[in-house]
Design brief:
The structure holds two protein chains of two kinds.
Chain A: H1 2-30, H2 46-53, H3 55-87, H4 91-106, H5 109-122, H6 129-154, H7 157-165, H8 170-181, H9 183-199, H10 202-207, H11 215-221, H12 229-264
Helix pairs in contact in A: 1-12, 2-12, 3-6, 3-9, 3-11, 4-6, 6-9, 7-8
Chain B: H1 9-30, E1 32-34, E2 41-43, H2 46-53, H3 55-87, H4 91-106, H5 109-121, H6 127-152, H7 157-164, H8 169-198, H9 201-207, H10 214-224, H11 228-258
Antiparallel strand pairs in B: 1-2
Helix pairs in contact in B: 1-11, 2-11, 3-6, 3-8, 4-6, 5-9, 6-8, 6-9, 7-8, 8-11, 10-11
The chains are: A mainly alpha, B mainly alpha.
């Protein structure tokens, strides 16, 4: 039995090595003194310097962030409103919206992407920042609705009705009674929207215009030649995600400890 | 409360215009060709005839299906033991392992694929093998997490019961654990096979352009040559292939449940 668990641990270790090998490799070679991606010739920060000096690279970080933030805000607000409306709608409307929302979630990204590209061109809308942002909002909303709907289904209708009977306006009932109860769903919807938007390549690639690149389309456009500054860019993304994860995991832990501490006294 | 119903109406217009209409435009483009000066568009099956009459296109489609299929199978074979072993750890260790599997997924997919280029430059692997490594790397976490979720929902008392009733460990696994994890495998397949069929940047980044898949074909017709009619037809054919294979996967799931 004991020997068996050792094998299991070795297996998991190998899988983790597979997952983290390229990440470690990229971080390591981002400090390489030479252009090579295979020979480490000495420590240097020149690729970081070059990255900060390359305007198009810094712009891609800027566009990725701005688009993800705006798309998350808009899709979360719209998605929440639509989800609440849906929970009060007839079954027919609910089925129609769910089926339509399934289209971008089940279709391959490339189909959604060319559909939007053809739409923009048919309507003579020039592609650029606007179409890129619009595309991101379009594919984020269904995910937000999807993560809020289960919470709304668990909701007791009588509580909102009681609020109305006690003199709340429908709007007050909405933000004082319904929204606090579905908060968890809204937060997870927003998180999904942000990661989907920040990570997206395929839809961005087909809906963006000249000169507007996010991180994904920028990396794709540089692959024809070796560009070690991409390693520096990757390292910074890895560092940022690790820091965010550590903070988001530590904060609840500290809070828990503090409340446990307060309970003791 | 019924007044909230009205909140949905603007979205119906939005979804009709921005989700349904684009799909209809693809169908419209696929079934038409550029006409002459009198009639600007002509309805025709020419794009489909062109696809099925040239063996190169069929080859590309079959290659994509094969790539997606093998990627899915390898992900199940590597991912199932991983998910199973994770599910057997202590609860707090399980949490850490799930976090470790999720973490690389949070890093941009393009960046992760780019990372493999450097490593694979050192090797003399064929372009095909390089693409396979990149595909499995990108999709394996989905498979592990889906199977793990279904395994961790399993009631451990079932195994004790199987043991009490005289099952040895192997039989208990085959008769209890494995059937109960089938839903996880099925949703893993959906999450791997579906995007794998249409993937186009992994083959391009790691295969160096010599390994053409259906996604590359679509990209090529839309971005490089600008033949949108044919490109639309190719993506319609691909969508149908995906829908059919999803139908059979789901059907398999139901049949299993019926037993």
């Amino acid at each position: 039995m004991k020997k068996k668990t050792v094998y299991e641990k070795i297996y998991l270790l190998l899988i983790m090595a597979f997952f983290y090998l390229p990440i470690v490799y990229v971080i390591f070679f981002s400090f390489n003194a030479s252009r090579s991606l295979t020979n480490f010739t000495g420590f240097s920060l020149r690729w970081y310097q070059k990255m900060f000096k390359t305007r198009s690279m810094m712009e891609s970080i800027y566009y990725s962030t701005v688009i993800a933030v705006i798309a998350t805000l808009v899709s979360t607000v719209v998605g929440t409103i639509v989800a609440i409306g849906l929970s009060k709608s007839s079954k027919l409307i609910r089925t129609i919206v769910t089926q339509v929302n399934n289209l971008p979630m089940l279709n391959p990204d490339i189909v959604t992407a060319i559909g939007l590209m053809l739409l923009f061109s048919t309507m003579n809308i020039p592609t650029g920042f606007g179409t890129l942002l619009l595309a991101h909002i379009i594919f984020c909303i269904p995910y937000v609705i999807l993560s809020i709907m289960p919470k709304l289904r668990q909701l007791d209708d009588n509580i909102a009705e009681a609020a109305l009977d006690l003199g709340c306006t429908p709007f007050q009932a909405l933000y004082k009674v319904i929204i606090p109860q579905i908060k968890e769903g809204i937060v997870s919807g927003a998180l999904v929207a942000f990661t989907m938007s920040f990570d997206d390549f395929v839809i961005s690639y087909f809906t963006t215009g000249p000169g507007i690149n996010n991180i994904s389309t920028y990396v794709y456009s540089t692959t024809k030649r070796i560009n070690p500054s991409v390693n520096a860019l990757s390292t910074i993304i890895v560092a940022a995600i690790t820091i965010i994860l550590i903070i988001s995991n530590l904060v609840p832990l500290i809070r828990q400890k503090r409340s446990a501490h307060e309970e003791n006294y | 409360m019924k007044s909230f119903r009205r909140l949905v109406y603007p979205y119906l217009v939005w979804a009709g215009l921005l989700i349904v209409l684009p799909m209809l435009i693809i169908v419209f483009y696929a079934f038409s060709t550029e006409g002459n000066s009198v009639i600007p568009v002509l309805f025709s099956f020419e794009n489909f005839a062109r696809f099925f009459s040239d063996s190169i296109f069929m080859e590309v489609l079959l290659r994509s299906i094969k790539l997606a299929f093998i990627t899915t199978v390898v992900c199940i074979l590597l991912g199932y033991p991983a998910a199973y072993f994770i599910a057997r750890l202590n609860p707090d260790k399980q949490e850490i392992m799930v976090l470790l599997v999720t973490l690389p997924q949070l890093i941009n997919m393009l960046v992760r694929t780019y990372a493999w280029r450097g490593i694979l430059l050192n090797t003399s692997f064929s372009p095909e093998l390089k693409v396979y490594i990149g595909m499995v790397y990108n999709f394996l976490p989905f498979m592990i997490l889906q199977i793990y979720t279904s395994l961790s929902k399993m009631n451990p008392d079932l195994l004790t019961a199987a043991n009490d009733l005289g099952c040895d460990e192997k039989t208990a696994f085959l008769k209890v654990t494995l059937p109960l994890s089938v839903p996880g495998i099925i949703s893993g397949i959906t999450l791997v096979f579906l995007p794998a069929v249409s993937s186009f940047f992994i083959p391009k980044l790691l295969g160096g352009g010599s390994y053409v898949l259906v996604g590359n074909l679509i990209e090529n017709y839309f971005v490089t040559t600008g033949d949108w009619n044919f490109g639309s037809a190719v993506s319609l054919i691909m969508t149908i292939v995906i829908l059919v294979s999803m139908y059979f996967t789901k059907k398999f799931d139901y049949d299993k449940e019926a037993i």
